[in-house]
Structure formats: structure tokens, C-alpha cells
């Protein structure tokens, strides 16, 4: 007989807001908005107190101010949030043999089989309490037999609590909840379900799966399975070595520093686009230079989680300036972004202006439709063969490895 799986889902409560409250206790109990601080800004995150006014993430800051004039508005501090996220990660890493970091503030852990040695729920509770005690951050968790039920349970446990869904009780637990609570159901799917008169999970549980497939295509089966508490998705081991990169090997070694910088700029710009398209963030940038004598040098730098060109490109050029040895012919250059996590959308909302956010979105939309070289900085035109490979979609990498110009 195969033992039941035991999956833990951990989620830091209003993470950005909680980090700010650690720095200023006067913010406790007050409506807080994190994001761009001008009227042209966008809300990246908000406290529970602010949500009672109808405020939500991605709302224009001007509208949020109108809904809650007394709200305290704070521009996001990526460096602080990155540090606190790593503190939580290190605690989980100490106690859990298999865990997955799905975003800056969200984790899964596989406790399957651990009840033979210790009580999984007791251990999870102790880990949660240690995170609260050592970091000062509130955190909630859900535990069940799979990722879907555990994630829903975490949502029901919030704020700052925990729920265990015992084996065999998954369907009764999910049944009375809104269909919007099912992971993967966004606003559009929610409205489609409402139009069909489907508002509670129980209704989906009682429907023939074929009916959902007719209405939603291949996603219909997935919705039906999740509503019935069926999910065999594994916990994917987290590794900070996870990265995306690109390199250029020259047919003829070069000493043209302006050309080298232009190519590095284009590489960084393209990789940043790949991050945003895959909804990822990087916390580590590496630049690689190989000279004509085949001596190879790399230099890396940690930085707050980001996927923004205007942060990553200057960092790449800064590292190149530090590593480059003048008067030596260069054979190869490369850029790598590593320590990747999900969750790029909220971090990007820290930009002060809605125009900057809209500019990124507009450029990325053009690149998605016409290719990732359709829009680029003039300084990067020198790099003609930057890859179109998307590492987050599982496409073959025809151009991501060494290219010869």
C-alpha cells in the first residue's frame, strides 16, 4: 500500500507590509499601501486594513487614495524584502529535506513519510513558530495530501494561522468555498463560471468532467480535478543555482570595448525580458569574459529581486567594467541571471510611475508577438543574434548556447 503524501504550503502574510511594520511599529493596525508613491503609481501590496476599503494589488494609486484617504503610502524596498525572504528560506532549509520556493514569500514542503519518525503537523507548527519568533513576520500554512488543497487551506487560515486538512476530507473541505478559491481560476474564468451559474466548488464536484471540458477545453479537466482535491504535482526541489544565461563567442577576437558593451547591454535586456515573460525575478547577476589566451574570468553580484532592465543593465555593465582587462583581445562574453524565484509582477509595481510599468508591458507585448528583437535599445543593435529561447516555456534552445557573430 502506497503511503499518502503530506504537502505543506507556507505563505507569509501581506509580506511587504509586514516587512515595513518591522521597521516601524507605528504602522501596526493602519491601512498601508506599498507601491509607487505618486498618483501615477500602482499598488503592489496592501494591508488587510486597506483591503476593507476595496483596495487590491495592481490598482492605480490615485484610486486607492480616493478609496482610503488616510492610507499610509510607502514605496517598496526590494533589498529589505529580499533579505527577509532569505531569512525565512534558511529556516525552512534547516528543517525540511525537500522544499520548493515558488516566490519571494511562498513555499511548499514535502513531508511524505516523515510521520514514521515524527509528527508532520507538529513539525510544521514548530517551523512556523520559529519563523515568527526569529524573523518577526506573520506566516500561515495549510497542510494536506497535495499542493492544491494545501494552498487553499493556507488562504483559509490567513491571517497568521494554520489549517490541516485530514486525509479523505479534501472534498468536504473544498465544497462550500467559492470557485475563485481554486488555484488557476483567474478573473476571466471566474466570470465564465458565474455565467454558467457555478459559484461554489461543490457544484463543480457534482458536474461531469466532460461538461467542463466542453466549456473550458483542456483546462476543464484540471479545474474539475482541483475542485475534487486531486493534484499529483510534485514539490520541485529549490535550488539557488537555477539560472538563465547567454554567451557570444566571436569568430574574430575583438578589443572593441564599445561593441562589447553594446552586446552585453542587449544580452541583459533580452534576459530581463525572458524573466518577465516567465514571471521570474533574479537576485544574482554574473558577467563572464574569456580572452584570446582562453583565460576565463567571471564576476557576480547579488542584488534585490528584480526583472527590470533599468536595474539589471547598469549592473551588468558595472561588472564588465570591473572585470575587463584593457588591451587584451576578447574571445567570448556572457551574462547569467541566477537565484531565480517567481513573483515578478508585484516587485515591478514598486516603480513610481504607471508610465514606466506600461512601457515595459507594451514592449514585452510587441516582443511576444513579433519576436524578442522587435523592440530594443539603440545601444544594443550591435548584438544581432541574441536568443529567442524562452527557458520558462520548455522550448528548445537553438540560440541560447554559444553563438558566433
Automatic annotation (TrEMBL):
CDD domains: PolY_Pol_IV_kappa. The active site is at residue 106. Its cofactor is Mg(2+). GO terms for biological process: DNA repair; DNA-templated DNA replication; error-prone translesion synthesis; SOS response. InterPro entries: DNA/RNA_pol_sf, DNA_pol_Y-fam_lit_finger_sf, DNA_pol_Y-fam_little_finger, DNA_polymerase-Y, DNApol_IV, IMS_HHH_1, Rev_trsase/Diguanyl_cyclase, UmuC. Binds 2 magnesium ions per subunit. The keyword Zinc-finger does not apply. GO terms for cellular component: cytosol. Residues 7-186 form the UmuC domain. Its EC number is 2.7.7.7. Keywords: Cytoplasm, DNA damage, DNA repair, DNA replication, DNA-binding, DNA-directed DNA polymerase, Magnesium, Metal-binding, Mutator protein, Nucleotidyltransferase, Transferase. It catalyses: DNA(n) + a 2'-deoxyribonucleoside 5'-triphosphate = DNA(n+1) + diphosphate. The record marks 16 as: Substrate discrimination. It is found in: Cytoplasm. Mg(2+) binds at residues 11, 105. GO terms for molecular function: damaged DNA binding; DNA-directed DNA polymerase activity; magnesium ion binding. Poorly processive, error-prone DNA polymerase involved in untargeted mutagenesis. Copies undamaged DNA at stalled replication forks, which arise in vivo from mismatched or misaligned primer ends. These misaligned primers can be extended by PolIV. Exhibits no 3'-5' exonuclease (proofreading) activity. May be involved in translesional synthesis, in conjunction with the beta clamp from PolIII. Belongs to the DNA polymerase type-Y family. Monomer. This is DNA polymerase IV. It comes from Marivirga atlantica.
